[in-house]
Amino acid sequence: MTKKIATRDAYGAALVELGGKNPAVVVLDADLSKSTKTYDFGQKYPRRFFNMGIAEQNLMGTAAGLAAAGKIAFASTFAVFGTGRVYDQIRNSIAYPQLNVKIGATHAGLTVGEDGASHQMLEDIALMRCLPNMTVFVPADGVETRAAVLAAAEMDGPVYIRMGRSEVPVLHNEASFNFVPGKAVILREGKDAAIVACGIMVSAALEAAETLAGQGVDVLVLDMHTIKPLDVEALVAAALATGAVVTAEEHSINGGLGGAVAEALVENYPVPMRRVGVRDTFGESGKPQALLEKYGLTVGDLVSAVQEVLQRKVK
Amino acid sequence: MSGQAEKLAKLQAQARQIRRDIVVMVGAAASGHPGGSLSAADIVTVLYFEVMSIDPQNPAWPERDRFVLSKGHAAPVLYAALAERGYFPVEQLTTLRQVGSLLQGHPDMRKVPGVEMTTGSLGQGLSAANGMALAGKLDGKDYRVFVMLGDGEAEEGQVWEAAMAAAHYKLDNVIAFLDYNGLQIDGRCDVVMSYEPLADKWRAFGWAVQEIDGHDLEQILAAIEHAKAIRGKPSIIIARTVKGKGVSFMENEASWHGTAPKPEQVEKALAEL
Q1: Does pLDDT of B102 surpass 70?
Q2: Chain A neighbours among B 188-227 (CB < 8 Å)?
Q3: How far is CA B87 from the centre of its chain?
Q4: Model confidence at B101, in pLDDT bands (50, 70, 90)?
Q5: In DSSP terms, which residues pair with A220 in a beta bridge?
Q6: Strands B187-188 and B183-184, how do they pair?
Q7: What is the pLDDT of residue A1?
Q8: A100-120: buried (b, 16+ CB within 10 Å) or exposed (e) per residue?
Q9: For position A303, what pLDDT does the model report?
Q10: Which structural domain range is residue B89 located in?
């Protein structure tokens, strides 16, 4: 059976690793360190860990000040509080002055589960990707999360890293995986259709491709771990190779990965396309798997979406 | 003249020049915020020309004292001080708010040498100042972070989040000023939103509080010296000021918060300064 690990756990471990490598790294949290997994960094490097209490605006502003004084500041909380609640702080104190703040946001999407819609952030990719100077990573597994965290620390400027609460299958081989910001990873070649996915939907995309292979449909799977800057080259190549694209994200269909892919394809190489994601609605309480089923984010939904775009494909 | 009297006279002259710069640049831009720039002019002058350890030739000097203008709309007073101090040519001041200018309507740290933090959206500067102060403590540096808040700005919730955190982290390297001119865009602060008792609020949040006349250079200097000596808690100096100070027709008029003087008004103001 495939090994599973939550991306937030990989985040916590990567921060500890980074703390040992780079003394300029500091970590801030807003009273959620045991959930965001920044707690371990705080235990190991207490002088470089700042709990800001339940005060997210000040969390972001303080991170900005630390960055202005030369630190690499990782600011963590849940995605819902780390984006929408503090959009103006991120916009004016971090993105506009291009400060070295890395927002490590966990508990994104429906799979927060039982806490319900107030905590299920489905618009964060949209909010973060429209900010100039912002890089947006949505890692698919623990290996990609670690790589994204290490890469973020090397980059100059703000980065948003979107992570989840639940355990997800490990897809990449840690020893051989080469993470390049802005470069999508082809996980499976194919000629009939492409699924472009991010986050927890990458493993679902691979399963859907397996299922479709059994029906004689050959699906390319692109792991789009960087939403911004989007790998337009890889995207257009996938559209050229297959002539039909499905996007898959645990996010609103509006403005996220699906939106970014649609914008890029329309301008460069339009092909029949379908966006799989939450269809412009809030979530609700429930078990993560039950929510994925109710809101149309399962392997079966991806299979159906591919079959639907194939119908519209220019023969 | 004694040393102190000479120092005060020099600062007085410098503050007058900064007020003239403010009027001229806002007039040239035909847009901007003269009222709150003039009310803060004496404090900013004392900081840049007497108190802060800075090097205009080396704006990124790691040991430098920092100043964060949290009430970013008072950008003209900051630009005037930086130019007069030699960070960039005084001639540039009249490019304020023009396309392509370094001098944005609100301060941009990436454009203007000497600007420590990008501000403009109210309520955010104290948080950034705290971050700089935490970094200073972490690095064993003894620089101080000065921050200027507006009184109306203290209506923003983030100010109080930051106030709580500065006390929690015992940031005695933070010295804040509250430019208490009593006016905000819609009128008198006590009419728009009652925020008194301000001094008690800051005390309750764990700060050392001083109340002074923000146009009395001697009081400003003494308050800063006193604040520097306080250990284990941040300091705030609540400075009673007059919005539009120095220009008779602007003084205590909320309408001059964000209105630029016309050319004949610039002349009239300069004649008074």
Answers
A1: yes
A2: none
A3: 17
A4: very high
A5: A194
A6: antiparallel
A7: 57
A8: bbbbbbbbbbbbbbeeeeebb
A9: 98
A10: 3-272
Chain B environment of A60 (Cβ under 8 Å): 127
Minimum distance, in Å, between the CA of residue B148 and any CA atom of chain A: 15
The residue-averaged pLDDT of B113-142 equals 98
Q: What are phi and psi of A71, to 5 degrees?
A: -90, 160
pLDDT per position as a tens digit, B181-202? 999 999 899 999 998 999 999 9
Say what the pLDDT of residue A2 is: 80
For residue B102, give how far its alpha carbon lies from the nearest alpha carbon of chain A (Å): 14
A54 touches chain B (CB under 8 A): no
* Structural domains of chain A sorted by starting position, each given as residue range(s) with its CATH number in brackets: 4-169 (3.40.50.970), 185-310 (3.40.50.920)
Domains: count for chain B? 1
CATH number at residue B232: 3.40.50.970
Percent of chain A whose pLDDT exceeds 90: 98
Partners of residue A195 on adjacent β-strands: A221, A246
CB atoms within 10 A of CB B13: 12
- Interface size A-B, in CB pairs within 8 Å, comes to 107
List CB contacts (< 8 A) between A58 and chain B. 127, 130, 158, 161-162, 164-165
CA of A154: how far to CAs of A186, B16, B138, B163, in Å?
Answer: 24, 47, 21, 32
Residue showing tokens 């079966």: A300
In this predicted model, what pLDDT tens digit does every residue of A236-246 receive, in sequence order? 999 999 999 99
Residues of A in contact with B134 (CB under 8 A): 50, 62, 65-66
A315 in B contact zone (CB under 8 Å): no
Which helix (H) or strand (E) is A249 found in, with range? strand A245-252
- Which H or E element spans position A268? helix A257-268
Angle between helix B75-85 and B3-29 (nearest 10): 120
Asked if B162 lies within 8 A of A93 by C-beta distance, the reply is no
B chain contacts of residue A61, beta-carbon cutoff 8 Å: 124, 126-128, 130-131, 158, 162
Task: Please give the pLDDT value at position A314.
Answer: 72
pLDDT of the residue at A108: 98
Q: Looking at the whole model, is its pTM more than 0.90?
A: yes
Alpha-carbon gap: A89 to the closest alpha carbon of chain B (Å): 7
